[in-house]
Amino acid sequence: MSVALMPQENWSIVRGQAAQLIFTFATVQGITGWALRFRLNKVDGTAVLTKTTAGGSITITDATNGVFKVALAVADTSTLDEKDYIYDVWRTDSGAEACLARGKGTLVQPMANLG
Fold first, then answer.
1. Hey, which bits of the chain come out as E strands?
2. Distance between CA atoms of residues 16 and 72, nearest Å
3. φ and ψ of 36, to 5 deg
């Protein structure tokens, strides 16, 4: 089975913010029943965060059209430094392992209370 890599998507979120990262295939790809894994690493390759469908942090929201989301909780992002990271998303089903997406994620410092 051949799966086309999604376009590289870079994102930026505020440290301590919950976020939903939404992934969609450029060409319609059914993903019913797929096991997925999201990894966030430091630029040097050191792993800092892993999310999976089995763990409930990746939700397939439209299996027919290949749409899924990765939930990052406040607890996930508040422990990370403000810097650039690299990420990838893999299909992890035995015999069908494939990298689906990759890119750069940036955590930025929250602005001081202006009120």
1. 11-14, 19-24, 36-42, 47-52, 58-62, 67-72, 84-91, 98-108
2. 10
3. -125, 150
SS3 state of residue 36: strand
Number of Cβ within 10 Å of residue 67's Cβ equals 17
CB atoms closer than 10 angstroms to residue 14:
14
- Pairwise pLDDT comparison (110 vs 41), residue with the higher score: 41
Question: pTM here?
Answer: 0.89
Q: Hey, what domains does the chain have and what are their CATH numbers?
A: 11-108 (2.60.40.4070)
Question: pLDDT tens, 45-89?
Answer: 999 999 999 999 999 999 999 999 999 999 999 999 999 999 999
Within 8 A by CB and 6+ apart from 48, the residues are 40, 41, 42, 80, 85
The amino acid present at 25, given as its one-letter code, is F
Residue type at 63? A
Whole-angstrom Cα distance, residue 5 to residue 26? 9
